[in-house]
Amino acid sequence: MIWIVLIDDHPLAVKGMGTWLEECEDSRADWFSIVGTAGNLADARLLLEKLDPLPEIIILDLSLGEEDGLEFIPTLKEICAERNADLPRILICSMHEDPFLIQRAIDAGAQGYVSKSANSGEIIAAIDAILAGKIYVNEKYRIQSPGPWACLTPKENEIVSLARRSMNNADIAGKMGISIRTVENHLARIYVKTGVVSRRELLDL
After folding, report:
1. Which comes out higher in pLDDT, residue 134 or 107?
2. Three-state DSSP class for residue 86
């Protein structure tokens, strides 16, 4: 039995993915079992702290309402370190298909990335790959490892991520709880690190 946790803030997506996985068999003839779901970072932490043993796989959405799903990865590492447990494999399942966001997820520690529009065969292939210790990303997405964004801090990566979702500086400041001036200062450092001179060049990378 392969234990899976689903972390997604859309109830219909959770129900649909959960039902589909529990009705499918993987290539080793083991059944998948959904052992828990969460719709935000706080609930995800509580769930993983009480699960014993930990799941083999966590399927995680990038966007949990106003929260960044990737912020859960350091929390998960902390939980595993405290329990001296192996880190579950992390498969990102997101509506976003921007290569930057995919690269950011892999650099953050995810082992796989699939679009929510992916067919069942691709999802199974991704699960098989990450269980085998491999990285899974559809070859149509051009990413590198380490990515061109590896020089950025986590906060700088988050700002680029939000900018690439068409948020302006005021939107980014509001979402991150910082001032517009702080956003501008971060962007100036990001431009220097990535070798661009404008927001448009940054978005075109």
Report:
1. 134
2. coil
